[in-house]
Input
Amino acid sequence: MSRWIILAAFGVLLLLVCVLPLRVAVGYDQGDSWLKLWLGPKWFVLYPRPAPKREKSKKPKEKESLDKKGKLTLGELLALAWDLLPPFKKAAGRFRRAVRIDELSVYLDWGEEDPADAAIHYGWACGVAEALLAFLQANFAIKSHQVHLDLNYQLEKPCFTIRAVLSLTAAQLLRIVLPLLWTAFMTVWNQRKQRTAAASAAQERKGEDDNGKEPSCQ
Output
């Protein structure tokens, strides 16, 4: 009986984890950027990470020689990227439909030393901001957004601040990531098998050529 209770509790816990909303907050403010992950009632800072404690200096280890065997060439990397392009495109479409932008805040105070240049570049910045906002609204579900653009002749350089909060459930994230990882693994595995088979065939042909040579007469 206790076994079934444990299994039922595990199933309920797994269901709660799958429907748990994951929220990611990204921000940039005057050269300082940050990334946070919301789990439960608390935000966890992913970036910037706290500076690690300095350890006592250790003797430098000898550099190990890297074996170049098994490394991919540029052509093989391009072939791998080409094979992975369709699944990545499919995963990007799923992510676009699953993710929701809960909050989007953009604040821009434009200013330069030359007032004429400031006015011209401010117009360009407004056009870019409107185009980006229209693109996001057409491709993502935006719950709340606030865009503030202002021209300030007292500033010598622009001041820019952005904050975005994205959310999706853990089940949606797994449904996007797991098929992509499996496809990438199988693609890499198949290409490795093909390279191994080609190398074995080349070695066999080389051995046959060596055995078929007639000994030279002296």
